[in-house]
## 1
Amino acid sequence: RLASRWSLAPLALGLAAALLIVMVQFFRELVHAITGFAEMDDSAVMIAVLKLVDLALIANLVVMIVGAAVEILVPGTVAPEGEPSDRSGDVAFGLVELKLFASISAIAAIYLLERFINVHPVDKTELFWEILILLTFVASGVLLALTDRLTADRH
């Protein structure tokens, strides 16, 4: 079981590298927004801010996944006898799943909002499918939360 836990280590390291890439991109967008602010109109400012929020949510998503992987990799600390442990050793996968669905849905919603604000013409069929995918994420998250709540009531 321990060997299978440590097989996740390269994936967690890869996600840590991906987090660095997202951070670099965030600062590139921030510098671009600051240096180009004087020429930006209202919609360009909103799009710049939405891109920053989008990158922050993506970074948050990566941190959540890496955090769950670390909890799997690193065994819980042993508490002195008679004291409760500060870590249970078990990852609350239901909670992680709900947070992941919420983050993915928020990222998709921000992407759609960017598309609505953007002044370029948008293909209606493509936009329809993007909205349908977002609604599917939201419905899946709600169903997952409901299922998690129903199963928690049984235990």
Note: The chain has five helices and no strands.
## 2
Amino acid sequence: TVLLDFILFQAADAQVLENLRKKDVDLEGGKVRFRATSQRKERTLKLQAVQTLPLSRWLTEVDEAPDSAGDESLLFAGRLSNATEALRQKLRKLEPRLHSLRDLRASLIARWAAETDLKRVQYRCGFRRIESAERYVRESHKELKEAIRLHHPWK
């Protein structure tokens, strides 16, 4: 659930999750820092209340791992690809139209783009260029047009 929570609430992708360390999570402050990568800028985002208990348990597991490096320990050390694939398969059983976990991330970003200004979307997602956030505005307009086309009573 920790992995799914990061995707659903912070729009995290595999690249930033691979670099997430124990010290990047501040449970008391309710924040998580995603480090800069080749494609993303560094950003610090709020944790949702429902994330704190599962995340606290996960951090305890990381501490107890035999190869633990303390605060420098990677949260998903060597487990990310297996965990994402297992999660994708479970979610596909619930929603067959879900092709990848990127679809979940994209839907959250599209919702943010509809609800707030693009600079905030750019920061939350770690996009280096505002054009990356603008792409999700266009996508949400396409989805809206398609929904109107399908469900409008005067078609």
Note: The chain is about 60% helix and 5% strand.
